[in-house]
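Re: duplicated header lines in exported structure tokens

Our pipeline writes sequence and tokens for each protein into one text file. With two proteins the header for the second block appears twice in some exports. Here is an export where it did not happen, for reference. First protein block:
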Amino acid sequence: MKPQLNYRHLHYFWITAQEGNFTRAAERLGVAVQTVSTQIGLLERSLGATLLSPQGRRLVPTETGRIALDYAGQIFQLGEQLRRSVEDSARDKPPRLAVGISDALPKLIAYRLLETVLALPEPARLVCEEGDFDDLVADLARHRLDVVLADRAATGSHLRVHSHPVGECEMALFGTPALAAQHGAGFPEGLGDAPLLLPTRDNALRDRLDHWFAARGLRPRIVCEFEDTALLMTFGRGGLGLFPAPALLAGEIATQYGAVPVGEMAEVREQFYAITAERRIRHPALEAMLARSPDRAIQPATSS
């Protein structure tokens, strides 16, 4: 009879496959490099197959290793869900939902998307983390996050994640009342020398904005570029320039940033996505968010 699978050995393999070498895996696990190498060797012998092979300076899963990695991810993800559920139940806490929010996603949109979760009869306990898109998707693939909210889909990724459209809206230019009065007349012709605050060129929206200006023969003066939309709007509140934002957020932008619409850019639309990893059991709060139709997901909860 074959020996029972050793889950510690499997865990060491899972971490090593994520990190790409024994040294980083050992650092993450808090053990010696030799320990990691030895235990993965024992796992390979017990399964009768090589799971990792060198490719340049990295260790990559073999074809059999990819199969093992898929099962390992599901096993340890379920184990983490079990641990969290038992801890929450023991403390009489609602279930935890770990959400990654891309720094390029308007925070007011993130709030709209998560209103559904907060309005459930048994709401989840949200743990929100903001960061770089690629870093968040990597954490999602490692099951450190349950979902990533972003302004773009995860395309061309080797990671096993899925992008779900959860909303879309037209964009508008906003500015302080003084800037709006100065550059809003005859929109968009009055934008010729207007100061602009724009997202950086790696932002999914930037190409559409540049095309919109070019199609109208406009060459506005770009004052600053930002990766973080909240920082962009904060500079806009200071009157340093006009800035793009979802038109449907006009009320919140007026309240929080003292800015008013200068003009709508109907041809420029921004899409929003919820990115998830493959899981056998998906969080019920996440299911509720994904079940909401994209044309309603970013509307105020009171309008549903």
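Second protein block, exported in the same file:
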Amino acid sequence: MIVVKAPMRISLFGGTTDYKSFYEKHGSLIVGTTINKYVYNTIRYRPFIVGNESIITYSKLEKVKNVGDIKNPLIRETLKYYDIKNPVELNFASDVPSRTGLGGSSACCVSLAKSVCELLGRETDRKTICQDAIKIEREILKETGGIQDQIWACYGGFNTITINYNGDFIVKPVAISHDFIRYFESSLMLIYSDQQRTSNVIAKSHIDKDKEKILEIAKQAIVYLQNEMIEDVGKLLYQSWLEKRNLSTFISNDRIDEMIEDIIKTGAYGAKLLGAGGAGFILVLCNRAVKQKLKEKYNSNIVDFEFETTGLTHEVI
């Protein structure tokens, strides 16, 4: 049996510049990190003696004789992409709810791509898995979105992602001290808005919008991070949110606006909604005293996390 896990991510700066419609004209720069929240899957060929159907378990249970009959589009098209013929047992689990802005869908695709390649005995590197996942999600399934999530799930770490005009990318660690990374990590919070995104309309609303200011903010954020100017990083975080919010009326709503306004009034350096918009987790950067106040106010909605550096991993059992 193959066991694979792929991490979720926090995109700090540059989000939405990783859409093809933007980076093919301007390039892209993303700053962010993966965290110790994961998508997991296990896969094995199903022994013939126990049946000739594939059993697929996620939030639902599917039993099918042919891969093409799987109802879940991502699972179906990924298994078809790798030409899986024999019956399999495939199971998924996740540390956080789906469609909440942490890159879970792409982590799911990446983890499945890796597990299937291992099942088939194919030698693959991170970049190949990443490119396969991008092709499956963006070309085959034609799901609107960028390409950073697949990259984060494969590579892990506190990094910058530079995307060239042709879609090729380079992943590099942010050049800051280990001590500051730990301090920065301790100054972040994730607060769940109790909402999940259910429509592709939000992601589509990002297309063909002016995001050059978001790109410039990402470049400035690297300078502030390297100089350990955490309050200025927070201000940029909030500024980047305002710029993103202005891209479309679908990106925020009254609930999100009220929460972020309250967080800033409480004294946070900065805050932003993660993901395409409309729902999910709010990222907060603040000092220890403000964090305690926010914990008291949003106690049941706070998710503890740590940075992770390993990215996509697997084992055979």
